[in-house]
Specification:
about 325 residues, mainly beta, Chitinase A, domain 3, 7-stranded antiparallel sheet, 4 helices, 17 strands, about 5% helix, isomerase, FKBP2/11, EC 5.2.1.8, TAT_signal, PPIase_dom_sf
Length: about 325
């Protein structure tokens, strides 16, 4: 369902942690756990100084080029919130520094998007999964490792991240709204997962239609947000479900307005309060155009979206 692009020319992924998750320069799968190195040499972060003032942008100092023979991670300043647990959806603010030059490539404090991750072994790898379960909300951590650039080359990086919060609840909450009745009826399971009562009827809309189902009470979404949501999608003509973050067991996140997702999402998930649920009916040219090569090319699609979190830029 998702059409992803890299965020910046350096191809840094604000939606993921580097280092332990990236494993090794050759992607062989070897990596190091908290504060250590698996190669017998000095831990990569032993020569890196990171400021622990959580009220300001991190300062990162080291003698470049920094040698990273094995991925490394450590907590710089411990937060006083709950320790992250398996399955948590985490929002954080990050800075990425080029280990070869010491140059800051991307920083939330300088206007880059926020980011986040899910604390799962499948998503992070065993080493990062173990490390993040030692990190508390409010902490600052550092990781040294690698990330692929847009050419597929491994770039050595130091990432500093401030863990801001865990997303909760993981379903829309607010005042129920009265839909128009022109589109399929939505019912919710006990966990909040949506279902529709059949396909669309009549002519599909020529432009994306947004209908409010639940109005939340949280902050309002805007361009540049790191948006976290649950969604399910169905084909208009058949009512057949083709995708659902609910069934994968984890919300989906992306940076709003960066072309990472279909146009119907980018343009129509703005100015919504966190906690809201909306139905989007999206024609093919605002979803997957006829020449896109997608299995859904040219089809009108129905989505029900729960807006769970909107992490703003530091504009």
């Amino acid at each position: 369902m998702i059409r992803r692009r890299t965020l910046l020319s350096t191809a840094l992924a604000a939606t993921a942690a580097i280092g332990l998750a990236a494993c090794s320069k050759d992607d062989s799968g070897s990596s190091a756990s908290d504060g250590g190195s698996d190669g017998g040499g000095a831990a990569a972060l032993s020569g890196v100084d990171v400021s622990d003032d959580l009220g300001s942008e991190p300062t990162v100092s080291f003698t470049a080029p920094l040698s990273i023979d094995a991925a490394d991670a450590r907590v710089i300043a411990a937060g006083d919130g709950a320790t992250l647990a398996e399955g948590d959806t985490v929002i954080m603010r990050s800075m990425y520094v080029d280990a070869s030059t010491g140059e800051t490539l991307q920083s939330w404090w300088q206007g880059a998007p926020a980011g986040g991750l899910q604390v799962t072994s499948d998503g992070l790898g065993a080493e990062a999964f173990a490390f993040f379960q030692t990190v508390a909300v409010g902490s600052r951590f550092a990781m040294a490792g690698w990330q692929q650039d847009s050419s597929g080359n491994a770039v050595s990086l130091v990432q500093v991240g401030d863990v801001d919060r865990v997303v909760s609840p993981l379903r829309a909450e607010g005042a129920e709204q009265k839909p128009s009745g022109s589109y399929p009826k939505v019912t919710l399971g006990k966990d909040g997962a949506p279902a529709i009562d059949g396909p669309g009827s009549g002519d599909a809309p020529a432009k994306t239609v947004r209908e409010a189902l639940i109005e939340g009470t949280g902050d309002t979404t805007r361009k540049g947000d790191y948006l976290t949501m649950h969604y399910t999608g169905w084909a208009w003509e058949t009512g057949e479900q083709f995708d659902s973050s609910w069934e994968r067991g984890a919300p989906f996140s992306f940076v709003q307005g960066q072309g990472q997702v279909i146009t119907g999402w980018d343009d129509n998930l703005l100015d919504l309060k966190v906690g809201s649920q909306v139905m989007l009916v999206i024609p093919g040219d605002e979803a997957y155009p006829a020449d896109s090569g997608s299995e859904l090319a040219g089809q009108t699609l129905i989505f029900v979206v729960d807006v769970l979190d909107a992490a703003h830029t530091n504009a």
